[in-house]
Amino acid sequence: xxxxxxxxxxxxxxxxxxxxxxxxxxxxxxxxxxxxxxxxxxxxxxxxxxxxxxxxxxxxxxxxxxxxxxxxxxxxxxxxxxxxxxxxxxxxxxxxxxxxxxxxxxxxxxxxxxxxxxxxxxxxxxxxxxxxxxxxxxxxxxxxxxxxxxxxxxxxxxxxxxxxxxxxxxxxxxxxxxxxxxxxxxxxxxxxxxxxxxxxxxxxxxxxxxxxxxxxxxxxxxxxxxxxxxxxxxxxxxxxxxxxxxxxxxxxxxxxxxxxxxxxxxxxxxxxxxxxxxxxxxxxxxxxxxxxxxxxxxxxxxxxxxxxxxxxxxxxxxxxxxxxxxxxxxxxxxxxxxxxxxxxxxxxxxxxxxxxxxxxxxxxxxxxxxxxxxxxxxxxxxxxxxxxxxxxxxxxxxxxxxxxxxxxxxxxxxxxxxxxxxxxxxxxxxxxxxxxxxxxxxxxx
Length: 445
Fold this sequence. Notes:
- By secondary structure, this protein is an alpha/beta fold.
- 36% of the residues lie in helices and 24% in strands.
- It starts with a strand and ends with a helix.
């Protein structure tokens, strides 16, 4: 950190001479240059005219003071010399989110948080869909966005990052290749995770997809190991207009992008969205989609409270509550089928009814145990009178559902979950437009 510009966070519960000595020692040990201090609160040990030898920044609360200081001073590292009762665990994590979003390190006596490293993508504009966790519909949003961008002439290439992705970036030509059961079973036979997000996106959105993998995810979303940067280089060399990166769980693709769309579940603990380092994900995004924003998963009051909390973290972010509805990729009219998904049990009846009303099929059974192989096998044992399976391409879709259909001589059809919300297309296309303009601006600059 030698020579880096440092902002010190201090409070009035420490006697000023003690703070001054601490700053001197920290500057010596870390080799940083102090440029300012943010006074986070507390008055017990501050007398009139206390002098810390640095410009002081104040705010309405600790987070506000840090935000104001970061705006005023270009800093590389923020050193926290504060403590309870002025800041607690929750406040520190929100402060950490602000610091990391500004691209600075956040250092305390027994911790150091570094912002994720985002590598440049050369040659094409880029956009990312990221999430606050698993099973919130992020990949479904990516697939929908890919189809929307293709329809609007952006000619997207998806780079999909998954926990079951290939060891080397794999190009799947979703535009020309009919990806059905034979293709997925072959992927399974060669040892691939055939229900990985890359196959789902290519099969259901019919766009060129580059499959990648990652392992581990830091507090701010940096993967411990991934081949996404290599995948980005592959995508940049393919025919296409815009690269759409699909995150994995709460992990972020480690690449620079022109804009980010964040996906969070209305059924999640709100603190996972606006607290901890969920706040960091909000701060580096321009759009938030609150998925599953309907009863019985989430009440209107819960969704509204979440929107209000989000606005406190980032007032300017666009927030769109959405719901998911199944979209078969094949014609299922008149077919008696088993609907296999990851949907919560309390939603299965509504989703089955939607399929029957909008696609003319007859749902004879439905299960949401696609991610629980043992329970799924039990559910399917009890099925009678089905002419086909309709399944999401997730979890046990290939090794259980597809294999079962093959053994029984019953066809397997595929479906995804389509986000539905008023104004959704406009918001997503605006984000893509910003990504394109930023790329064009960089090239001309």
